[in-house]
Write a structure and sequence with these properties.
The complex is a heterotrimer of chains A (646), B (91) and C (162).
Chain A (H helix, E strand, L loop, with lengths): L5 E6 L4 E6 L2 H7 L2 H12 L13 E4 L14 E6 L6 E6 L3 H7 L4 E5 L6 E6 L2 E6 L8 H12 L5 E4 L2 H4 L7 E3 L3 E3 L4 H7 L2 E7 L4 E2 L3 H16 L2 H9 L3 H9 L20 H7 L9 E2 L9 E5 L9 E3 L3 H9 L6 H14 L3 H17 L4 H4 L9 H12 L3 H7 L3 H8 L9 E2 L2 E2 L9 H9 L20 H8 L19 H18 L19 H9 L5 H21 L16 H4 L16 H15 L9 H6 L11
Helix pairs in contact in A: 2-20, 2-22, 7-21, 11-12, 11-13, 12-15, 13-15, 15-16, 18-20, 20-22, 20-24
Chain B lengths: L8 H4 L9 E2 L8 E2 L7 E3 L6 E8 L2 E7 L1 H15 L9
Antiparallel strand pairs in B: 1-2, 3-4, 4-5
Chain C lengths: L2 E5 L9 H11 L1 E2 L7 E5 L4 E5 L8 H5 L5 E3 L6 E3 L9 H5 L6 E3 L4 E3 L9 H5 L5 E5 L3 H23 L1
Antiparallel strand pairs in C: 1-9, 3-4, 5-6, 7-8
Chain lengths: 646, 91, 162
């Protein structure tokens, strides 16, 4: 059998390691990767557990297709209860870690307990060792990785590490691998830090079996062609994810000055083409790098050209760094974007969250809610590049009153700052939004409001909605594998049919995360990229498992419901402004003031938004409060969870 | 496993890909614009929005950003009409 | 016409798809440790270099083999290991100046690039053309053209600056 795959349970308190095979029937129900992680979290995290306590399980995984002969199976998924949201914590990163984990003989690691001193895990060809990491403590994310390679004398080791932000338990610290691959959202690096776990180092030379190797090889060629021939991926392969900036900032979808504007005007210096011009080793067809097995190669490489960090090599910046160090704090300098991107990579902190937190603090400062007393002399106004970068340092090292407060995350910080600071925090479920402004795009607004890990664009965003696709094309995509004959609209400023699109995207992204492949290889930014109908062959040739498109859909829906059950158990309610499926009041109250003529004046209509949420729940088989009905749980075979089969 | 020869939805939509064009970014407009090869700017004949272009390959243009002075004026006129104020503190 | 595998490391994105498809093609498994091509990386600097067998004319692997298991394929010109004869002594692994000879701990024999019998999968899958399979008479003409273009561009830039 091709699928002799293993899970390991590691208890850092008792230093016990247990290794088990993963039963095949679990694959049919939860596929792997994020879906299986959701099962493990729901089963292993005690209800109401302290996210920074020893009982919170940190689950690290590759997907069903990881390291097989399928395209871009590079993604690592990490799950735990989040210290940022106190709900589902979940992050996903590219690079080379998950395939190496697979070649070392494991597909899932469940790490519980807490070590009394810094340690790292050494996972090597079927064996797991807990090793001393005191000499690594205090090192940044890349130095940590190189030091482990030197210590173990193997330059092929891939490590998932935390930087100083994770050690200092910044609640939105990342896990990192390679130069810049980051599992950024929901503070999984903070959970690692709480366990005194500095790194998971893996190296494997074991086979990942392929059920039908020559078929898999031939099919992969065809599959890759479908992916790389798409315009969106050709642009991405030349400019990286910042390519999204051009369009979004044209029409007015870029959150600027926290949430004061929806467009950053005259910001030509941070356009990806401009960064390509000023940095010698950056964006451009021959300065791009790829994750494992991926021909899209969307990661840019650069050297900082000027300033304090001149000469430093790094990767990126991604689209999100343009927002975090450009639009949100209203800084227009490429040097600042490149430097900020470098700092977050080195400290190991979520660029989206830290950029959003600082921009929020800047608005509070300009409103007088924060003063020079709290900032300890920092002139935290918008457009102050120096103050922005200083705050990155202060948060990651928990320096100063404000740095320390902001390191705790938005909701606790709002409570400590007091007054009406919370009103200005652009968050959902305690996690801040990226620099996108969804006031003109109800479908995208529904996505961030209902995403299972808090405000997030990678859980259910119907991004192709922005392309004004003709209705027959939308029907072709959104009408399969489950028939849908309800309304759909090409107008992305409309509310019509968006609840279905978000529901469909939620399932497609879950499926991708279960398979362990990248979202740029499915219907995310390109309408003609593979989805449910394309995966059965890939799965069959590589693993021998037979799935129909509908079975993949069902499994994705099942896993999404498990995440929902976890969130409900941990306190999610529909209208809770801090833990619900809600948006900041500014989405409903403040109209867009910039961008394309048709975007100006747009804001989200409260009533229509509520109807969309009702519809969205209805598609899931959830009641008006967003709770899965008993029929839904039975339909998905979840009525007896937790079942503790793994 | 049953061999399915029927094209999947993504494969069948491949023929709908268009090259050499960009779309106007005004939501109700979204008209396809065909820039002449290598040109640096293009205006939408319908709504007047004007864009700077970047050519990824000689066949693949993309919108790099707005021509600010043109689009900003359109935005401010619309803002004044819809909300009755101008974007005064805009920098 | 005899063909060579050539590497242009400047183009390599470091994705290692070549390693994946090579091991699937030859061993039916995904395992870079069993791939005939390997991408060596200096991630700190963003340098990725695919390392392949050069099919040397005066091949040390052939010369060192005590049982004459390695010989040149008469049709395609690559150095071939006769698995019936190989005794797994790894002398060739030790002597290859490029590290291009591998040892398979499962079969306990050595392995090396066989150009996939004329259709190298690494080349077929590499869309940035960091690895190419070119006729022997074109190897240096292509390099000349690229080198000349680089030099000419540099000269134009220098003139502009001057």
């Amino acid at each position: 059998m091709a699928l002799d795959r293993k899970i390991a349970y590691i208890n850092l308190s008792t230093r016990e390691v247990e290794i088990k095979p993963i039963p095949l029937e679990m694959r049919k129900k939860f596929i792997g990767g994020r879906g299986m992680d959701a099962y493990l979290l729901y089963n292993h995290a005690p209800e109401g557990c302290d996210p920074l306590g020893p009982e919170n399980p940190l689950i690290v995984s590759g997907g069903l297709l990881t390291a097989t002969c399928a395209s871009a199976t590079a993604r690592t998924h990490v799950m735990a209860k989040s210290p940022l949201t106190n709900l589902l914590g979940s992050c996903n990163m590219g690079g080379f870690f998950a395939p190496e984990l697979a070649w070392s003989g494991f597909h899932h690691l469940v790490i519980t307990g807490k070590s009394d001193k810094p340690v790292y895990l050494w996972v090597h060809n079927g064996e797991i060792e807990i090793r001393d990491a005191e000499y690594l403590w205090g090192k940044n994310s890349t130095d940590t990785q190189w030091a482990i390679r030197d210590e173990l004398d193997d330059q092929e080791i891939k490590s998932m590490v935390i930087g100083q932000a994770g050690e200092n338990q910044v609640t939105y610290a990342c896990v990192m691998t390679g130069i810049k691959n980051a599992g950024g959202r929901t503070g999984m690096g903070c959970v690692m830090g709480s366990k005194n776990l500095k790194a998971v180092a893996v190296r494997g030379t074991m086979d990942v079996k392929i059920a039908h190797p020559m078929d898999a090889l031939e099919h992969n060629k065809k599959f890759i062609d479908q992916i790389t021939s798409a315009k969106v991926n050709q642009i991405q392969g030349a400019l990286g994810t910042p390519f999204i900036w051009g369009a979004t900032n044209c029409w007015g979808g870029v959150r600027t000055r926290n949430f004061q504007y929806n467009q950053m005007e005259y910001a030509d210096e941070i356009e990806p083409e401009a960064i390509d011009d000023i940095a010698t080793e950056t964006i451009g067809p021959h300065h791009m790098t790829g994750c494992f097995g991926c021909q899209v190669h969307c990661r840019a490489q650069y050297k900082i050209q000027s300033g304090l960090y001149a000469g430093k090599y790094d990767e990126g910046p991604e689209y999100t760094s343009l927002g975090a160090f450009g639009a949100e704090p209203d800084c227009k300098s490429a040097e600042t974007v490149l430097t900020g991107n470098h700092l977050v990579n080195q400290y190991g902190v979520d660029n989206l969250e830290i950029g959003s937190m600082i921009a929020w603090a800047m608005e509070l400062y300009e409103l007088g809610i924060l003063t020079q007393k709290e900032t300890e002399g920092i002139d935290l106004r918008f457009g102050n590049d120096e103050a922005l970068l200083q705050m990155v340092h202060n948060i990651c090292t928990r320096t100063g009153w404000l740095g320390n407060v902001l390191a705790d995350g938005g909701i606790p910080a709002a409570e400590k700052i007091g007054k009406n600071a919370f009103d200005y925090l652009i968050q959902v479920k305690g996690m801040n939004n990226l620099h996108s402004d969804e006031r003109a795009t109800p479908g995208l607004a529904l996505n961030i409001a209902t995403a299972s890990r808090g405000s997030d664009h990678l859980r259910s965003r119907p991004a192709i909605d922005l392309y004004h696709l003709p209705e027959p094309v939308l029907r072709k995509i959104y009408g399969s594998p489950v028939p849908y004959d309800g309304p759909l609209s090409s107008e992305h400023t409309e509310y019509i049919g968006k609840s279905w699109q978000v529901f469909w995207q939620e399932n497609v992204y879950m499926a991708v995360d279960c398979l362990g492949i990248c979202k740029y290889h499915t219907v995310f930014l390109g309408a003609t990229l593979p989805n449910f109908e394309d995966w059965p062959k890939v799965i069959y040739y590589n693993t021998g498992l037979e799935f129909t498109p509908k079975e993949i859909w069902d499994a994705a829906e099942r896993c999404n419901n498990l995440e929902r059950l976890f969130n409900l158990r941990e306190g999610l309610t529909r209208n809770d402004p801090k833990k619900g499926d809600t948006l900041n009041h500014r989405y409903f109250d403040e109209p867009c003031r910039r961008g394309a003529p048709d975007v100006i004046g747009k804001k989200i209509d409260r009533d229509k938004f509520n109807v969309m949420i009702d519809e969205f729940y209805d598609h899931h088989g959830w009641d008006k409060e967003g709770v899965p009905t008993s029929e839904t749980l039975q339909r998905l075979g979840l009525e007896n969870e937790p079942t503790r089969l793994l | 496993m049953a061999e399915q020869q029927r094209a999947s939805s993504s494969e069948s939509l491949r023929s709908t890909r268009t090259f050499g064009k960009v779309r106007c970014h005004n939501p109700s407009c979204m008209g396809r614009l065909s820039p002449s090869p290598g040109s640096k700017e293009i205006s939408c004949p319908t709504c007047g929005m004007t864009y700077r272009l970047f050519w990824v390959t000689p066949e693949l243009p993309r919108i790099r950003g707005p021509v600010w002075d043109v689009n900003r004026k359109l935005a401010q006129d619309t803002l004044a009409k819809k909300i009755g104020t101008s974007d005064s503190d805009s920098n | 016409m005899e063909k060579f595998l050539t590497v242009d490391a400047d183009k390599c994105t470091g994705c290692r798809l070549c390693e994946q498809v090579c091991s699937v093609m030859h061993e039916g498994v995904s395992n870079p440790a069993k791939s005939r091509i390997q991408v060596v990386k200096w991630e700190q600097e963003g340098v990725y270099i695919p390392v392949i067998c050069k099919q040397c004319e005066d091949a040390p692997c052939m010369n060192v083999c005590p049982v004459r298991a390695i010989s040149r394929d008469p049709d395609f010109g690559f150095m071939k290991v006769d698995q019936e004869v190989c005794i797994g002594c790894r002398s060739c692994v030790g002597i290859c100046p490029f590290g291009a000879m591998g040892y398979n701990p499962t079969t306990r024999q050595v392995f090396k690039c066989d150009l996939c019998g004329g259709d190298p999968q690494c080349v077929r899958f590499c869309e940035v053309n960091a690895v190419e399979f070119v006729p022997v008479d074109r190897v240096s003409t292509q390099k000349k053209r690229r080198g000349a273009a680089r030099q000419s561009a540099a000269e134009r830039q220098a003139t502009a600056l001057g």
